[in-house]
């Protein structure tokens, strides 16, 4: 099932449940409110009836006349006896010939046929029972058990009787049923309108949500097919827009990784091909008798084998770094002391080229870090090897050490030749070489700085390359102090 159908079903189900709950609660509330209104209306109608009954008792000192004339009791409850003057025979004839006054509901009710008077569930007479002070029924067919309410009749502070009223029966009058049907119809219309509007809004929302998802799906298929130039440009500021921007960033990264991998394979094969080609040419020359197998030929072969072995070792080192398998045995140590040991090993090499070494390590003599002695020596050896190989003869190598907040800062500055500014960000790329004097002609595998970067990062530090004030290259290492 498609996602748009799932979203639509979820929204529709939720809407139906909410509308059903709201509709039922509103209908029940309206019905109860209508019942409360009827009860309030009945209470208002009972007050004048109570006054008339108590006034009659005060005049006649009993309810005997009412017992003999139940119609008079019903008339009292209907507000007829006190509201109309005594009717003479002549007036009675005129009243019988007079048409119904529809503006006077009291007159209308009194002139209706008897069989229609009891159809109104709000009529008091069918539900009222008059009791004496001993709670014996005088008029009516109710009982104390069936009365919903009993109102005391008090004259001069003495309870002379009770008026019991049964509960209003279920509303089934034409007007009342029509009113409730009208309310039910309105609620049903509102519910249908809410469901339709909710479905429309849900469909529009689903379309808005699924459009970028479809674009992401298509972009993913293009990426899987190797199209790393695929981009998804969504002018949105929500999470889906951020996801699209992350997708574009991923495509850029994958494209760069793909190009770097291809370049890595090409450069590695080229680096391996050079010593292998030299070895093959030397051996073929010896086998063909063109070159004698003397010590000079063996030294040449040995040099190329060492170069090939160094390249293979560096590749293996980087491969372990990529897999996170670099062995780092950390212990508290002095990086300045290890740097001094590395400088002692390179003293002759630098001296042969006339490179003067300037040291400013006094500020960090007592600095200690948590690191690996062998790996730190490997970092310093690679950096010193770079300076010894690429710095012009009779140049300068200045090494300084400073303490920053929680950091040890080591700088290696050498003299000309320098590195072009556009090449500085790529110095730590594998097998990267500039086209200036720092090239393959000076030897090296082109992997030394990449290895240095991985080793420095393994110690929690950073290494950067920039132009040196001496005219060459500055390599700066920052490591956290112990």
State the main characteristics.
482 residues, alpha+beta, four-stranded antiparallel β-sheet, single chain, five-stranded mixed β-sheet, 15% strand
SSE order and pairing:
Layout: H1 3-60, H2 64-68, H3 70-77, H4 89-97, H5 105-111, H6 114-117, E1 128-132, E2 137-139, E3 147-155, E4 158-166, H7 174-224, H8 239-287, H9 295-322, E5 331-333, H10 335-345, H11 347-352, E6 356-360, E7 369-371, H12 373-390, E8 396-404, E9 407-415, H13 448-458, E10 462-467, E11 471-480
Parallel strand pairs: 6-8
Antiparallel strand pairs: 1-2, 1-4, 3-4, 5-7, 8-9, 9-11, 10-11
Helix pairs in contact: 1-7, 7-8, 8-9, 9-13, 10-12, 12-13
Mean of residue pLDDT values: 77
As residue ranges, the low-confidence spans are: 80-119, 435-442
Strand order of the largest sheet: 6-8-9-11-10
Distance between the termini: 59 Å
* Class computed from helices, strands and strand pairing: alpha+beta
Q: Helix and strand string, N-terminal first?
A: HHHHHHEEEEHHHEHHEEHEEHEE
Q: How many strands in all?
A: 11
**Helical stretch tally:** 13
| Approximate strand percentage | 5-15%
Give the % helix: 40-55%
Report on the biggest sheet: 5 strands, mixed
Report the C-alpha radius of gyration, rounded: 53 Å
Shape from CA axes? rod-shaped
């Amino acid at each position: 099932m498609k996602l748009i159908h799932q979203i639509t079903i979820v929204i529709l189900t939720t809407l139906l449940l909410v509308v059903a709950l709201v509709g039922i609660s509103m209908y029940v509330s309206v019905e109860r409110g209508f019942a409360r209104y009827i009860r309030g209306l009945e209470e208002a109608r009972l007050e004048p009836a109570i006054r008339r009954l108590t006034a009659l008792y005060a005049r006649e000192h009993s309810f005997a006349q009412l017992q003999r004339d139940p119609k008079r009791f019903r008339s009292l409850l209907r507000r007829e006896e006190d509201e109309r003057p005594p009717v003479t025979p002549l007036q009675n004839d005129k009243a019988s010939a007079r048409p119904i006054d529809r503006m006077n509901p009291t007159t209308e009710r009194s002139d209706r046929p008897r069989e229609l008077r009891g159809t109104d569930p709000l009529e008091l007479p069918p539900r009222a029972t008059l009791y004496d002070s001993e709670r014996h029924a005088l008029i009516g067919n109710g009982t104390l058990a069936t009365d919903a309410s009993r109102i005391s009749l008090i004259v001069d502070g003495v309870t002379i009787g009770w008026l019991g009223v049964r509960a209003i029966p279920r509303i089934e009058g034409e007007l009342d049923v029509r009113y409730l049907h009208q309310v039910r119809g309105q609620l049903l219309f509102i519910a249908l309108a809410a469901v339709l509007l909710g479905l429309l809004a849900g469909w529009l929302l689903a379309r808005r949500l699924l459009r970028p998802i479809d674009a992401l799906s298509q972009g993913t298929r293009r990426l899987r097919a190797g199209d790393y130039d695929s981009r998804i440009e969504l002018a949105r500021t929500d999470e889906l827009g951020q996801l699209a921007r992350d997708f574009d960033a991923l495509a850029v990264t994958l494209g760069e990784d793909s190009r770097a991998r291809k370049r890595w394979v090409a450069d590695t094969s080229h680096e391996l091909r050079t010593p292998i080609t030299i070895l093959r040419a030397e051996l073929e020359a010896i086998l063909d008798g063109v070159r004698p197998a003397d010590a000079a030929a063996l030294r040449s072969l040995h040099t190329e084998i060492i170069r090939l072995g160094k390249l293979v070792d560096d590749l293996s080192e980087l491969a372990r770094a990529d897999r996170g398998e670099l062995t780092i045995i950390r212990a508290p140590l002095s990086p300045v002391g290890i740097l001094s040991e590395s400088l002692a090993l390179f003293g002759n090499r630098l001296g042969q080229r006339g490179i003067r070494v300037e040291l400013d390590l006094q500020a960090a003599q007592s600095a200690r870090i948590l690191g690996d002695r062998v790996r730190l020596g490997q970092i310093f050896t690679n950096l010193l090897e770079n300076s010894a190989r690429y710095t012009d003869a009779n140049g300068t190598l200045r090494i300084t050490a400073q303490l920053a907040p929680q950091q040890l800062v080591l700088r290696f500055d050498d003299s000309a030749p320098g590195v072009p500014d556009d090449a500085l960000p790529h110095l730590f790329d594998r097998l990267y070489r500039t086209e200036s004097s720092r090239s393959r002609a000076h030897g090296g595998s082109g992997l030394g700085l990449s290895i240095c970067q991985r080793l420095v990062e393994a110690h929690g530090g950073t290494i950067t390359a920039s132009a040196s004030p001496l005219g060459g290259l500055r390599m700066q290492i920052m490591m956290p102090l112990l």
